[in-house]
Give the backbone structure.
Amino acid sequence: MSNALTGTEFKFQGQKSVYHGKVRDVYNINDDLMVMVATDRISAFDVILPKGIPFKGQVLNQIAASFLDATADIVPNWKLATPDPMVTVGLKCEGFRVEMIIRGYLTGSAWREYREGCRNLCGVTLPDGMRENERFPEPIITPTTKAEEGHDENISKEEIIARGLVSREDYEQMEKYTRALFQRGTEIAAAKGLILVDTKYEFGKRDGKVILIDEIHTPDSSRYFYADGYEEKFIKGEPQKQLSKEFVRQWLIEHDFMNRPGDTMPEITDAYAESVSDRYIELYEHITGTKFEKAACADIAGRIEQNVKNWLASR
């Protein structure tokens, strides 16, 4: 689709390297700044889908930037500026090889494991008798390793510390920040008629300080339910109306794809890609309370390149 950006190969002044992630392309500028481009790529089950989603990158970048600003009083973060609707520029940090996942409800992959009999998730004991989409008495933290390739792996706090992935002091600081960020995100979502179900945070270190990096509270990193109707649907055992990437995972599951050996990726039609785009825009408008303004898409790469070059030149 012509209005979806699925890859970049920019050459900025001072550029030392570029990292192409599942969704973001990250440019290292003089080992001091990071230019993070939120592309329109979409991934699920640790695989990049073969078609981009129009305006997805803009949605992710603008939601993340908004929440980074709204939580800057809780934890220092990497963001310096957003020179383009699909770009955030910030401080280069040494990232921890762990993702901090926090869950307020039993759903998604946690529910799938629970349904198969799992009662200990990342060192957290789960009670018997829980139902899908049921709220935990208190949010639980279920970290994963951050894999360079392939699947992230569930891991406990004690394993993280024992393996030297993160020091105990840094991990406990990350844990404290994670709970405070989730509480703030929950409050903001509630004011918009949404439930922040679960999310992930990534942290790094710069000048000896733990810093919040990457995205925050986007539909790629978080799951939201509509508050209206939650109780009724839960009592009836009906699926919750949600705004997250989970609906893409469910669509893939229904088409017998979970990235298992032998699985075949189903065809992603233009119509389906547009419907996913509409869901992302819907979340943006709900969580921000503002109308989504689509950026010019005649030459997305050219627009981004010029905006970033102008910002870097102005420093």
Q: What stands out?
A: The radius of gyration is 19 Å. The chain is about 35% helix and 25% strand.
